[in-house]
Amino acid sequence: MSIASRACRLEVRMDPSSCTHPLWMVCRVTGEVDIATAHALREHLLTALDQPGHRILLDLSAVTFMDASGLDVLVFVKRMAVRRGGALRLLAPPAAICRLLTASGLLGHFAMSHELEAPEQTELILPAT
Question: Are 48 and 14 in contact, with CB atoms under 8 Å apart?
């Protein structure tokens, strides 16, 4: 299942049949997450939370831009996942997103993984200096 928003500025793909991660719903985000696309991303991730397990592995490796609207989506979806007994884990966020998380004081609030093969491994990804 996928969505496209604002002339393909954002694309989200859910992979519910991932045999590598039967406990995680893998959501791959491509493009820009900003005020124009954040609502679509939020709705898509809330749909993913409705799936059994309520655990989202959010692949941000192809996100080219994120502003405060995107951070709001991450915080909101994480809060909703926790309320439902689930989790939100960020996968391979680019350095620019890590800098945004650091500047906002949110970096330590999200579990992160570098690789798709090891979603249970929590790693702190620090932005390049």
Answer: yes
Lay out the sheet containing 2-5: strands in order across: 2-5, 10-15, 25-33, 55-66, 87-91, 111-113
> Residues 17-46: pLDDT tens digits?
444 566 788 899 999 999 999 999 999 999
- For the whole model, what pTM was predicted? 0.80
pLDDT (tens digit, 9 = 90+) per residue, 52-76?
Answer: 788 999 999 999 999 999 999 999 9
> How many whole angstroms from its chain centre is CA 11?
12
